[in-house]
Amino acid sequence: MKEKLSFQNPKSFLVVFFTLLLFSSNLLADTDCGHITGLEFSNGHETVMLKDHEVYNINDLPEHFYINLNVDGYSQSARFIVKNLDTGSTYNITENLLPYTFPAGNASWHLGLGTFKITTYLYKFDLAWGFKCDTETVTFTINDGHQP
User: Fold this and answer.
1) Which residue of 9, 43, 54, 104 pairs with 62 in a disulfide if CB–CB is 3.0 to 4.6 A?
2) Does residue 114 carry a pLDDT above 80?
3) How confident is the model at residue 21, as a pLDDT?
4) Under 8 Å CB-to-CB from 99, ≥6 apart: which residues?
């Protein structure tokens, strides 16, 4: 009578080791990570550079504008965290395709007037996952030109 060989599961530490080896090779790949070169108000045709602590009249900005994140080098995604400092509302968007914009997909700005703080993160991988390449924070005000 032949002996049956029983199937033995590999030791858990071997599974963990090979999983880490697989992911670490991707994380340490020799691809330089990009960096943020600035933010701008844009509608695809006209642009106005967005500067920290500036006040912008909405009538001086491009019609149907969005916030465009300018990047240089390699990246796969960007995350925008936009906080309306007047109301406390926070909006979080992840973009996986260039150009990285808020709102996503080159949609028009929909947050109206007020003081805003935008923190942007640039990532090496899709879905704002993994190695963070760069970050930038800008605070600005959009008004209608009238004094309160």
Assistant:
1) 43
2) yes
3) 46
4) 68, 69, 106
Contact, 79 vs 118, CB < 8 A?
Answer: no
The confidence score (pLDDT) of residue 32 equals: 82
- What are the domain boundaries of the chain? 32-143
Nearest in space to 24 (alpha carbons), one of 130, 133, 122, 121: 130
Average of per-residue pLDDT across 108-135: 95
DSSP characters over 118-133 = EEEEEEEEGGGEEEEE
Using CA atoms of 80, 43, 50, 108 in order, give the dihedral in degrees to the nearest 10.
Answer: -40
* All residues at 6 or more sequence positions from 56 whose CB lies less than 8 Å from its CB, including other chains: 41, 48, 140, 141, 142, 143
Which residues does 81 contact at the CB level (< 8 Å), separation at least 6?
Answer: 90, 91, 92, 118, 119, 120, 121
Residue 30 has pLDDT above 60, yes or no: no
Q: Indicate the CATH number for domain 32-143.
A: 2.70.50.30
Q: Is 147 left (phi over 0), alpha (psi -120 to 50) or beta?
A: beta
Task: State yes or no: pLDDT of 95 exceeds 50.
Answer: yes
In the chain, alpha helices (H): 12-27
